[in-house]
Amino acid sequence: MKILVLSDSHREENYLRSAVQRERPDAVIHLGDYASDARVLEQEYPRLPVCTVRGNCDRDAADVQEEALLEWEGVQILATHGHRYHVKSDLLTLRYAALEKGVQVVAFGHTHIPYCEESDGLWMLNPGACGRLFPSYGMIEIKNGTVQCRVMEEAL
């Protein structure tokens, strides 16, 4: 299973489309800041499951959840924008929250800085920003209960 992880798109909808076309994911997670961009993917790829959480710039998205606990193929993922966990200061609060919830992956955005690290069975993945000069996105791949995460920083 391939899950495309996007964040901070800030109305760069063409990049989202390009990432979907390039990766051909089984699902998409949009981590906010212009959560409305994810609706474009829902409309253009109606068979592609899209999960969206609200970012700090999504004041007009009251109907979008703050965070989501997701599960695919037995792997649990916490999706959050990250601002409520103060990820611009450090990742410790977010790490503790993820460990408390018992997830294998925590996906977050907000900093616009790509980050991907596994420690003690927990992947922490920030796909960076797909709406800036040097766009990036993240991938979560699940195969036979094993998780691998990566960040793609190549221009599309």
Q: Any descriptors?
A:
single chain; 156 residues; alpha/beta; Purple Acid Phosphatase, chain A, domain 2; five-stranded mixed β-sheet
Task: Give your account of this protein's structure.
With 156 residues, this protein is an alpha/beta fold. The chain has one domain (2-152): Metallo-dependent phosphatases (Purple Acid Phosphatase, chain A, domain 2). The protein has helices at 13-23, 36-44, 92-101; strands spanning 2-6, 27-30, 50-52, 67-72, 75-80, 105-107, 115-119, 122-126, 137-143, 146-152. The protein has a 5-stranded mixed beta sheet, with helices on one face. The longest helix has 11 residues, at 13-23.
Task: Give a quick summary of the entry.
The protein is an alpha/beta fold and 156 residues long.
List the helices and strands and how they pair.
Blueprint: E1 2-6, H1 13-23, E2 27-30, H2 36-44, E3 50-52, E4 67-72, E5 75-80, H3 92-101, E6 105-107, E7 115-119, E8 122-126, E9 137-143, E10 146-152
Parallel strand pairs: 1-2, 2-3, 5-6, 6-8
Antiparallel strand pairs: 1-9, 4-5, 7-8, 9-10
> Using DSSP, what is the number of strands?
10
The computed structural class is alpha/beta
What's the arrangement of strands in the largest beta sheet?
Answer: 3-2-1-9-10
Main sheet, how many strands, which sense, barrel? 5 strands, mixed
Give the termini separation: 22 Å
Helix coverage percent of residues? 10-25%
Give the count of helical stretches. Answer: 3
CATH homologous superfamily heading:
Metallo-dependent phosphatases
The second-level CATH architecture is 4-Layer Sandwich
Please give the radius of gyration in angstroms: 14 Å
Shape: globular
Strand content: 25-35%
Unreliable spans are: none
Mean pLDDT: 94
Give the oligomeric state of the chains in this entry, treating copies of one chain as homo and distinct chains as hetero.
single chain
